[in-house]
Design a protein that fits this description.
Layout: E1 5-7, H1 16-24, E2 29-31, E3 48-50, E4 55-57, H2 66-78, E5 83-87, H3 92-104, E6 109-113, H4 120-126, H5 129-142, E7 147-151, H6 158-167, E8 172-175, E9 179-181, E10 184-185, E11 190-191, E12 198-201, H7 206-219, E13 224-227, H8 233-242, E14 244-249, H9 251-256, H10 260-274
The structure holds ligand RRO.
Ligand RRO binds next to loops.
Length: about 300
C-alpha cells in the first residue's frame, strides 16, 4: 500500500468506477462492498438514516454476487488499484469459494465479514470464537493472499474473538464493524429502518472502536486495522497510538467527501514530522507504554 489509509467496506464499493475514484482521491487501498456467492437485493427502504452523531444503516448485504463482481476486481487491477475484497457467506465453504474467486480475479487481500449487525447468520459468526476460527481456517487453506478478519463490537470480549482468528491463521484483524442500534419515528410510532435494527457508524462510535483496537493490540501479534468514526487526521493518530497499523475511513466519505483521504494522509505526515518520526510504525501502539490501566 502506498499509504495506510484505506476506504472501508460498504461505501462506494460496488463498482470499479467509484472505487477507482476513491483510489485517485488518495486512498492507500480500497475495500469492496461485501460480496457473497449469489446476488442479493438487500432490505427494503428505509435502509439509511443520518442521526447527526452518526449514520444508521441496514442495507442487508445488497451485492451483485461473485460471478458478476470478478469483472469489477479485474477492471480495478487493470487500473493498478490496490483492492481488498470483502467477503461474506452463510457457511465456511461459501466464504472460501467467494474468497478464492476474488483472489483469482486479482484481489490483493480478502477481508472476511463476520460482523454485519443486522443479518443474523453473518453477525452471529463474529460472536462465536469457534465459528470465527473454523471459517478463517477454511479460507486460509484455500487462498494464498492475506486474509483479514473483520470483527463486530457487539460482543462482550472482542479480544478473545481476535485471538481465535489469529490462532486460526488470520493475517490481520479489522476492528470494528458497526454497532447494533435503532431509531424510532415518533410521529409514525414505529422503527425507522425497515429491518428495525441497523448498524451505527460515524463519530458516535469512535471511542468504542478505539477501545476495541487498544484491547485487540494487547491480545494479538498480527496487525490491527482500525475503523470506526474516523473523520480527521487527529482521529487517525489516536488509532495508530492505540495499536492500529493501518486505518479505514467510511462514513467520513459521506460526511466530508473524497478530500478526506488527502486531509488525513497530509495531516499524518505533518504530525510525524512534528514528532520527529520518519515512519508511521514509530507511533503504532505508543499509547500503551504510558498506560496505567489494569490489564
Ligand atoms: O449491508 C449491510 O447492511 C451492512 C453490512 Br454487510 C455490514 O457489514 N455492516 C453494516 O453496517 N451494514
Amino acid at each position: 500500500m502506498r499509504n495506510p489509509v484505506m476506504l472501508s467496506a460498504g461505501v462506494l464499493g460496488i463498482s470499479h468506477r467509484t472505487l477507482r475514484r476513491v483510489y485517485e482521491a488518495g486512498a492507500g487501498a480500497v475495500v469492496t462492498k461485501s460480496i457473497g456467492a449469489e446476488p442479493r437485493k438487500g432490505f427494503k427502504n428505509p435502509t439509511l438514516v443520518d442521526l447527526g452523531v452518526g449514520v444508521l444503516n441496514a442495507m442487508g448485504l445488497p451485492n451483485p454476487g461473485v460471478k458478476e463482481f470478478v469483472k469489477e476486481v479485474e477492471a480495478l487491477k487493470r487500473d493498478g488499484v490496490c483492492v481488498i475484497a470483502s467477503v461474506y457467506g452463510f457457511r465456511a465453504e461459501e466464504y472460501a469459494q467467494v474468497a478464492g474467486e476474488l483472489c483469482d480475479a486479482g484481489a490483493d487481500a480478502v477481508e472476511l465479514n463476520y460482523s454485519c449487525p443486522h443479518v443474523s447468520q453473518v453477525g452471529l459468526i463474529g460472536q462465536n470464537p469457534q465459528l470465527v476460527a473454523e471459517v478463517t481456517e477454511t479460507v486460509k487453506h484455500s487462498v494464498s493472499k492475506p486474509v483479514y478478519v473483520k470483527l463486530t463490537p457487539n460482543v462482550t470480549d472482542i479480544a478473545s474473538v481476535a485471538k481465535a482468528a489469529e490462532e486460526a491463521g488470520a493475517d490481520a484483524i479489522t476492528a470494528i464493524n458497526t454497532v447494533r442500534a435503532m431509531a424510532i419515528d415518533i410521529e409514525f410510532q414505529r422503527p425507522v429502518l425497515s429491518a428495525v435494527y441497523g448498524g451505527l457508524s460515524g463519530p458516535a462510535i469512535k471511542p468504542i472502536a478505539l477501545r476495541a483496537v487498544y484491547e485487540i493490540y494487547e491480545a494479538v501479534e498480527i496487525p490491527v486495522i482500525g475503523v470506526g468514526g474516523i473523520t480527521s487526521w487527529r482521529d487517525a493518530v489516536e488509532f495508530f497510538l492505540a495499536g492500529a497499523s493501518a486505518i479505514q475511513v467510511g462514513t467520513a466519505v459521506y460526511l466530508k467527501g473524497l478530500s478526506i483521504f488527502r486531509q488525513i494522509t497530509q495531516g499524518l505526515k505533518r504530525y510525524l514530522e512534528r514528532k520527529g518520526c520518519s515512519t508511521i510504525e514509530e507511533i503504532v501502539g505508543k499509547a500503551h507504554k504510558h498506560s496505567s490501566s489494569p490489564k
